[in-house]
Amino acid sequence: MKVLLIDDHPLILSALQTVIQGLGDNVTVIGASSARAARDTLQRHPDFDLVLLDLHLGDADGFDVLAEFRAAYPALPVVVVSASDRASDVIRAIDLGAMGFVPKRASNETLFDALRMVMSGGIYVPPMTMGVNRPPERAEESGPLGTVRQGAADAGFQKPAAAIEALGLTPRQRDVLALLLQGQPNKLIARELGLSVETVKDHVAAVLRALNVSSRTQAVLAVSQMAQQPGALTGFRRPPGTSR
Fold first, then answer.
1. Global pTM value
2. What tens-digit pLDDT sequence spans the chain (244 residues)?
């Protein structure tokens, strides 16, 4: 796996490189200290599997960079790693196409779990982004990303919904949901699945009703919370033939 890490703070950049390389011997991490350096790196080496992006860069707004990269490299997943964990920032990042959002104060284990989830086709957001105030958190041994690990109390702040398997979705609706979670618009979903746009709209509406949400972003957040419950996404995969 080849990872591009974008952060303009040298110490954080170095620490994150070390942490991410701990994912395995086959992981290559290349750092970029600015948006400009990241653009140049991607142009020279378009074979990256993952981008980790800080929102606060010295030469650009991270949200602008996120939107730019998602437009230029739609098959390349981007995970935001930020000092912020505000719900508004998480929602905006997901709206712009981020496949994950990890606060910098999270533990190394949380980062590993988030990256594995993203690389297996899921979307990761912190549990506190469902519009509920955070519970008190317990401190654990610190790592390069910070000193706090989400405590067991997080389980009580998950979205109170059944696992995706129990939502009653048809196989085609599950295919639509998988593509919706990639940020695909209805036209591209229709093209991928060989359906009409009107049929896709009907499937999307059914998916939103099943999740008890009213927007695509809320659907992403709901599913990401389910995904953090053991076994919740069993059997939930991208439709055959779809790209990353």
1. 0.64
2. 999 999 999 988 898 888 888 887 789 999 999 999 999 999 999 899 999 999 999 999 999 999 999 999 988 999 999 998 888 898 899 888 898 999 998 888 889 888 988 888 778 888 744 443 333 333 333 334 432 223 222 322 233 334 567 788 899 998 998 888 777 789 989 999 999 999 999 999 999 998 888 888 888 777 776 765 544 443 344 454 444 4
Strands 146-148 and 139-143: antiparallel
The token duo for 149 is 């690990």
Task: Find the farthest-apart pair of alpha carbons in the chain and give their distance in angstroms, rounded.
Answer: 53
- Type of residue at 40: D
Residue 223 belongs to what H/E stretch?
helix 216-227
Distance CA 195, CA 197 (A): 6
Is the separation of the CB atoms in 233 and 226 below 8 Å?
Answer: yes
Structural domains of the chain sorted by starting position, each given as residue range(s) with its CATH number in brackets: 2-157 (3.40.50.2300), 164-227 (1.10.10.10)
Amino acid at 22: G
Torsion of CA 62, 227, 46, 74, to 10 degrees: -70
